[in-house]
Amino acid sequence: MTQPAPDSLSDIDAATIAINQRMNKFDGHAQVWLFGYGSLIYKADFPYIERRPASITGWTRRFWQGSHDHRGTPMAPGRVATIVPQAGAVCDGMAYLITPEVFAHLDHREKNGYLRLSAAITFDDGSSTEGLVYIANEENAAFLGAASELDIARQIARAAGPSGPNSEYLLHLARALRELGKTDPHVFAIERHLAQLSHPGTAG
Length: 204
Description:
The protein has six helices and seven strands. It is α+β, with helices and mostly antiparallel strands and 204 residues long. Helix 4 (149-158) crosses helix 6 and helix 5 packs across helix 6. It is globular, with a radius of gyration of 17 Å.
């Protein structure tokens, strides 16, 4: 797949931030629930009022989004999580109750193609609320798309960026899901392939 040029990546970042800043569905709300399914599960580098394990229905987590700014470079992007529609699927993660002021930081953190969208969030106790989630869809220029879990693991094993090795992101996410008592066959399969690539003599 042809990678976006560095100048176009800057354009992606600026356009994504601008679109998110116009997202006004929750204008006037003092507090908003935000659902995280990737690094937001384990890296909450922002103030929050409360956090609770949660899920969203009709979406599944996939390592189909390119990372040119955090876990890769413009010429050698890493792969990070997004969610894609899938009927009947449930994506587990963590929900944070935040104030609107926090979005300035989050919009910058998620600038590489992630747009804020409204979503129905279900908490582990069965209660639910409407909130927001950042999603990188197939229309953004950093989207890499589907690949086999082995090929994804190979790309992750090679990639690194300003935030560190791409493998670190995958391993932290897998560990965080286990700590929540959740399973994700896609994430765990990539994790297994990554371990085998790091230690070629191992199996299983």
